Amino acid sequence: MARIVKHEKKLPVAIEEKDAKFPIYLCACGLSSSFPYCDGSHDRAKDEAENAIYIYDKDKRIKL
């Protein structure tokens, strides 16, 4: 089933544990193929215009 989800952030959220060697990054853009973890897919969203609507698939982005 397809659904429209509004994501307002373009960068991941870092979760830093007290004894961890490195932070865990959680996806905030909604494009990660390993959701909820960030896989760097947010690079595709970095130049999005504010208040614009985009549709993403695995190969391209369409601005509505």
Q: How would you characterize the overall build of this protein?
A:
- With 64 residues, the protein is mainly β.
- The protein has one domain (1-64).
- Helices cover 0% and strands 19% of the residues.
- It contains no helices and 4 strands.
- The strands form 2 sheets. The chain has a two-stranded antiparallel sheet with strand order 1-2.
- A hairpin with a 4-residue loop joins strand 3 and strand 4.
- It is elongated and about 45 Å long.
- The model has no long low-confidence stretch (mean pLDDT 88).
Give me the side-by-side strand order of the main sheet: 1-2
Order of helices and strands: EEEE
Radius of gyration, Cα only, in angstroms? 13 Å
Major sheet: size, sense and barrel closure? Answer: 2 strands, antiparallel
Secondary structure tally, helices: 0
As a percent range, the share of strand residues is 15-25%
Outline: elongated
Spans where pLDDT lies below 50 across 5 or more residues: none
- The total of beta strands comes to 4
The portion of residues assigned to helices is under 10%
Number of domains: 1
Integer average pLDDT: 88
Structural class: mainly beta
User: How far apart lie the N and C ends?
Assistant: 20 Å
What are the defining features of this structure?
mainly beta
Give a short overview:
With 64 residues, the chain is mainly beta. The chain has strands at 13-15, 24-26, 54-56, 61-63.
